[in-house]
Amino acid sequence: MSGARRVEIEYCTQCRWLPRAAWLAQELLTTFEAELTELVLRPGTGGVFVVRVNDEVVWDRREQGFPEPTAVKRAVRDRVAPGRSLGHSDGPA
């Protein structure tokens, strides 16, 4: 994939989910340091916790619950580095 590879994590400030969002951001930046061009933490309200890749929702807490990092890594990988192995993270969910 060429061009921007942007990840956005929108989190609820009312719920105090910044630490969770920051930790997930760190995991993604560590895993995809060469593939991502931008990672944004976006404050929100109302219980939101959504992960987007290039504006496509890949995880929504309201529909899927809080994500395990490996599940989000797989979703991000499938969009920014298809075919790349994630090692042990590629195991069963």
Descriptive notes:
The chain is of the alpha+beta class. 32% of the residues lie in helices and 26% in strands. The protein has three helices and four strands; from the N terminus they run βαβββαα. Strands 2-1-3-4 form a four-stranded mixed sheet. Strand 3 (49-53) and strand 4 (56-60) form a beta hairpin. Helix 1 packs across helix 3.
Key descriptive features of the protein:
93 residues; alpha+beta; 3 helices; 4 strands; 32% helix
Structural class: alpha+beta
| Average residue-wise pLDDT | 91
Distance between the termini: 25 Å
Rg over CA atoms: 13 Å
Q: How many helices in DSSP terms? A: 3
User: Uncertain segments of ≥5 residues (pLDDT<50)?
Assistant: none
